[in-house]
Design brief:
By secondary structure, the protein is of the alpha/beta class. The protein is 45% helix and 16% strand. It is built from 17 helices and eleven strands. It starts with 5 loop residues before the first helix and ends with a helix. The strands form two sheets. It has an eight-stranded parallel β-barrel with strand order 1-2-5-6-7-8-10-11, surrounded by five helices. It binds (3S,4R)-3-hydroxy-2-oxopiperidin-4-yl beta-D-xylopyranoside. (3S,4R)-3-hydroxy-2-oxopiperidin-4-yl beta-D-xylopyranoside binds next to loops.
Length: 371
């Protein structure tokens, strides 16, 4: 009989720990969310300490918003709300290809640089949005003519330039945005036409080559309303994983409304999470004016319904394993500046802060979802 004394056992446990712990840290990019800077004694802390609650203080995963750079520069209440509540930022527009790529080898960085510097100064993470999106292709690329290799070359140049510039400063990228249609087929775009469906692999491979540590996401909408689409997205993700194409996460845009059943929201998040990838609720907003009534005003009934949807979505993310909860991002900051009224051509109030930056019922729905 083998006899193990308590001391021997303790010794063995220690040896295993010494060998195993460094290995866990070595797996970083694979299963650990990048650390969120902790509040300390910098200027940002004055704002953070001005209130006992704030999303970034109470949440175990990052909260963020899609920002408008000129509002960030010019509106102090907007800026202070962002600093107080968020620890993850997305550019609503300034990191898209149409905004950055002025011509071959010509780039406009000023606004993207501003956002990155702002995030660093305020201890926030940046989620890059988006390297390749069919709807943000500059005219010089639409008009480009060349062989398949020429097209690969311009894709490679662009991704290398952008990801390379922000290497180590941007923690994650939406590498590819909206490449799948509601019927589950691949969307047509200039990259698919000129390179073939292989362009998808290349986007992820080029991004990985430019920054070995940045987290790479596939981002899309519709998980909550189309089972065909979410199945196709999961198939794409699992195919990429199986073939060794680098992908770390799925972004679920979730532009949704108060009429969307709670079950659909939960199913969307849980289905995406079944891939094992990190999950980012990447562009969340809740429409309340579902009939597009030009005379509608925001009222208590709409507000309560909206609060419930915010709670359900936040709770569904909260209930995932910690290493899959990448973050929760609103598509905007406050009702005074949301893309929804323009998109649907009617008044609406889709975000957790009202026109004056007050916390709406939706905000308290979010807090309730974090329990
Ligand atoms: C939208 C912006 O909010 C608008 O300001 C812009 O005019 C068009 O793009 N899905 C996405 C986002 O991935 O990039 C889109 O953002 C909204 C839909």
């Amino acid at each position: 009989m083998i006899f193990i004394t308590k001391t021997t056992l303790l010794f063995r446990v220690l040896i295993v720990a010494v060998l195993f712990v460094p290995f866990c840290f070595a797996c970083k990019g694979d299963d650990v969310i990048p650390p969120i800077p902790k509040p300390g004694t910098d200027p940002v802390d004055t704002i953070l300490n001005s209130d006992t609650i704030s999303l970034r203080k109470v949440s175990p995963f990052p909260f963020g918003g899609a920002l408008n750079i000129s509002t960030l520069k010019n509106n102090t209440t907007y800026r202070n709300t962002v600093i107080k509540e968020f620890n993850s930022l997305t550019a609503e527009n300034v990191m898209k290809m149409k905004n950055i790529s002025l011509g071959r080898g010509q780039y406009y960085w000023t606004d993207a640089d501003y956002l990155v510097a702002f995030a660093q100064a305020n201890k926030m993470r940046i989620h890059g949005h988006a390297l390749v999106w069919y709807n943000s292709t500059p005219t010089w690329i639409t008009n480009f003519t060349g062989t398949k290799d020429d097209w690969k070359a311009i894709l490679h140049e662009y991704i290398t330039a952008v990801v390379g510039r922000y290497k180590g400063k941007i923690q994650s990228w939406d590498v590819l945005n909206e490449a799948i249609l509601d019927d589950g087929t691949f969307r047509d775009c200039v990259w698919k036409q000129n390179i073939g469906i292989e362009y998808i692999d290349l986007c992820f491979q080029y991004a990985r080559e430019a920054d070995p540590n940045v987290l790479l996401f596939y981002n899309d909408y519709g998980h909550e309303y189309s089972s065909t689409k979410r199945t196709a997205i999961n198939k794409l993700a699992t195919d990429l994983i199986a073939r060794g194409v680098p992908i770390d996460g799925l972004g679920l845009q979730m532009h949704t409304s108060i009429t969307r059943p709670d079950a659909d929201i939960k199913t969307a998040i849980n289905t995406a999470a079944s891939t094992g990838l990190k999950i980012h609720i990447s562009e969340f907003d809740i429409r309340t004016n579902t009939a597009a009534d030009p005379n509608l005003t925001f009222n208590a009934t709409l507000s309560a319904a909206q609060k419930q949807k915010y709670k359900v979505a936040v709770k569904a993310l909260f209930d995932l394993p910690a290493n899959q909860r990448y973050g929760f991002t609103f598509w905007g900051v406050y009702d005074g500046q949301s893309w929804i009224p323009t998109e649907y051509n009617c008044p609406d109030w889709p975000l957790p802060f009202d026109n004056e930056f007050n916390r709406k019922d939706a905000y308290y729905g979010i807090l309730a979802g974090l329990k």
